[in-house]
Amino acid sequence: MYYIVYSFLWLLSLLPLRVLHFLSDCFYVLVFYVFQYRKEVVIKNMKQAFPHKSEKEITALAKKFYHAFIDSLMESIKLFSAGQKFIDTHLQLDLSLFDRLAAENRSCQMHACHQFNWEYINHGMAAAMKQPLVAVYMPISNKALNKIFYDLRTRYGTVMLPATEMKNKFNAWRTKLHVLALVADQNPGNPANAYWLDFLNKPAPFVKGPERYAREKASPVVLAYSRIEKRGYYSLHFEMLTNDASQLAEGELTKIYVKRITEIINEQPHNWLWSHRRWKFEWKEEYGAVLNN
């Protein structure tokens, strides 16, 4: 199964990007109008996040999101055959912040959120960074697809650590220079063991792991976020959230992160994964206070 699916995706990747975008437009019609993939979730999330927007504005934003979402999937297929020149053309990034940390022999954490196009971002960073990119990921349940995307994501040297084995797998990197990449806006497995913050007009739980690791290691923490410049073209930006996480009070790093990604999402709202059931957990008093960010 692996070789059949991989061969199909590789052949599909040989198509020019404009053709893949045409296929994306076709799939958009099916996904949005026919199958209505998680459309109810997307609309509900957007209405909550943007209560000032009208029904017409919410629908228009939802359509823009689905176009960006499906584009990112089709563009990712292009990476099966595209080389470094393609990435250099379609992704703008300045890695000078990481270069400085590498020169100081300092490892750091990079906190990202669910933005597009994460496959371009992974390839662009791994190919150009002076230190190894160590990324935590959630394995795909289908073994063939999991291996296909594992192979794709490690092609330029990214070290992929499954979230299910994070504690054990990361031990080998504790004393080595690295950038630990974490998608820090995901749902926690246990909402009772999370930081609860107001996020886009509703309390939401945030995993404690990213902050805990950074505080234990007295690590610098860098925020990474993307912008869609035009169709098929992205820019990647970095901001230092803290030079030493151990100097912040507990919960402070997460508050800073949530405040900043809220601003970023508001700046380009279609460039975030609204189909994610981000508010599936409801806050309860026994979880503790909702932190003020």
Give structural attributes.
alpha/beta; 18% strand; 45% helix; globular
How is this structure best described in words?
The structure is a single chain. With 293 residues, the chain is of the alpha/beta class. It has a domain at 85-287. Helices cover 45% and strands 18% of the residues. It has helices at residues 2-13, 17-34, 39-49, 55-78, 84-90, 96-103, 118-128, 143-153, 166-170, 209-216, 252-267, and strands spanning 91-93, 108-112, 133-137, 159-162, 179-183, 195-199, 202-206, 221-230, 233-242. A 7-stranded mixed β-sheet has the order 1-9-8-2-5-3-4, with helices on both faces. A two-stranded antiparallel sheet has the order 6-7. β6 and β7 form a beta hairpin. α3 (39-49) crosses α4. The longest helix is centred in the N-terminal third of the chain and has 24 residues, at 55-78. The termini are far apart. The model has no long low-confidence stretch (mean pLDDT 94).
